[in-house]
Design brief:
Layout lengths: L7 H30 L1 H5 L2 H14 L4 H15 L7 H14 L8 H8 L17 H5 L13
């Protein structure tokens, strides 16, 4: 009995099975190359980028509100589908500054401004002279929403 060649539809899956590992490898290597094309984006998490923005703006004379708005915008832009709340963005910025203090040598002095508005008014700047009146001036009342600019 003569052997007939398989119909084209039966041959196609065999060829695809042979080509699929090579195509998959090519796709993976192309994806890796694309991520290396912009190494800063591949390495820097959103907190590091936001810390860089916040610290740069503060060290160049901008106030906390303007610098925070820009830094929080960076966190929201680079965080994907779910936007982190301001509390999480503050933690990301703080962690980036603390863990990379060599990259942000003068920024630690500005980190208090991110958190000073969360401090209980009764704990700082009390009438008996304890605490820091400067920090208490911007302190929120207990239970109030955090006054981060959005």
């Amino acid at each position: 009995m003569p052997v007939h060649p398989a119909p084209p539809m039966r041959v196609l899956p065999i060829h695809l099975r042979r080509l699929l590992p090579g195509m998959l490898g090519l796709a993976l290597s192309a994806g890796a190359a694309a991520s290396l094309a912009n190494p800063a984006q591949a390495i820097d998490p959103p907190g590091a980028k936001a810390a860089q923005v916040y610290c740069f703006m503060r060290s160049n004379g901008n106030n906390h509100e303007v610098s925070w708005a820009a830094a929080y915008g960076v966190v929201k832009q680079t965080s994907g589908v779910f936007k982190p709340p301001p509390e999480r963005a503050a933690v990301l910025i703080t962690e980036a500054v603390v863990y990379n203090s060599a990259s942000f040598p003068d920024c630690a002095r500005y980190l208090g401004d991110i958190y000073s508005r969360r401090v209980n008014r009764g704990a700082l700047g009390t009438p008996d002279g304890t605490g820091s009146p400067g920090a208490a001036a911007g302190a929120a009342t207990p239970g109030a929403a955090m006054p981060y600019p959005r």
